[in-house]
Write a structure and sequence with these properties.
- There is one protein chain.
- By secondary structure, the chain is mainly alpha-helical.
- It has one domain.
- It contains ten helices and five strands; from the N terminus they run ββαααααβββααααα.
- The strands form two sheets. The chain has a three-stranded antiparallel β-sheet. It has a two-stranded antiparallel ribbon with strand order 1-2.
- A hairpin with a 2-residue loop joins β4 and β5.
């Protein structure tokens, strides 16, 4: 099947099943899987135009709602964290989309940049996996999560405190805003919405449980991806001689596979230890990052 916008030809079942498998595992950690689908599009399918970032965000728009639905239904959506992610990330996405088109149109430069973004993600996950002892954020909730496990104790612009699985956690919204703004710029350039960067940060640095972070990160990624796609679509009129607008057909195929994968991943997540979730993500991320960075030298 030929996709005219991207100029690639591939059997339609390949994007579907690749997205299904990737998103099943990554959605457990609050990551849509777009950060792995982009290397697949660039390196395997040969889709290197700037519009690949926008196409990647189309995948997020289609796929993420199924996973978010499961987290909301199971009472594991921490709304103060979700809104902090959205408010902080959204402005950065617009800046990142402009930087991608204006300064990183060359595939080699883009892959080198993407490699360092992925290296950061993998490094944070690796530190979290090998730190001494098992922290409370790494433990599997006793008996699995339920709607009664998450309780919001306090929420203000200065501090958010909540109880999950009989453990107390907290974070500063101001810190989340600042980090997410920078993440939004990187996510806008890379076409991932930012969830794959903020989720490891929340778990490894702030110490929040992955079972609570997942829903907020996915919801934030969905909102920022909608904004990113609209912005890329608008920029297509500003840069008529460059492939900027998303390939909607290819993005929808990836998205449909992601719908199935994310729903199953979100449904399964509460039964899987956090260490296993982070281990799978870490191996995938570091492999792709190394391939992209070293690829510039050979």
């Amino acid at each position: 099947m030929l996709f005219p916008v991207s100029g690639i030809e591939v059997h339609p079942l390949i994007p579907f099943f690749v997205a299904l498998i990737v998103s099943f595992f990554t959605s457990m950690g609050g990551v849509s899987g777009a950060f792995l689908l982009l290397p697949f599009q660039v390196s395997v399918l040969g889709y290197t135009a700037p519009s690949v970032s926008a196409t990647n965000q189309v995948f997020n728009i289609v796929a993420i709602p199924s996973g978010v639905y499961r987290y909301i239904r199971e009472g594991r959506m921490l709304w103060p964290l979700t809104w902090a992610v959205i408010i902080g990330t959204l402005p950065g996405v617009f800046i990142g989309a402009w930087v991608r088109i204006e300064y990183l149109p060359d595939p080699a430069h883009f892959k080198f940049f993407a490699g360092f973004v992925l290296l950061y993600i993998g490094w944070r996950l690796l530190i979290d996996l090998f730190r001494r002892g098992r922290t409370r954020a790494d433990k599997k909730p006793t008996g699995g999560a339920s709607a009664h496990d998450l309780k919001l104790d306090r929420s203000s612009w200065r501090e958010v405190a909540f109880t999950y699985d009989n453990e107390r956690y907290g974070f500063s919204p101001a810190v989340v805003y600042g980090v997410c703004f920078l993440v939004g710029i990187a996510g806008g350039i890379y076409g991932i919405g930012g969830g794959s960067i903020v989720a490891p940060f929340f778990v490894a640095i702030i110490g929040l449980p992955v079972y609570v972070v997942a829903g907020a990160a996915l919801m934030g990624t969905f909102i920022t991806s909608v904004a990113g796609v609209l912005f890329y679509q608008a920029l297509a009129y500003v840069y008529p001689n460059m492939s900027v607008a998303p390939d909607w057909g290819l993005g929808l195929l990836f998205g449909l596979g992601g719908v199935v994968g994310m729903y199953l991943g979100a449904r399964t997540q509460r039964f899987v230890p956090a260490g296993i979730i982070k281990g799978v993500l870490c191996v995938c991320v570091l492999f792709v990052a190394g391939n992209y960075i070293l690829g510039l030298f050979y």
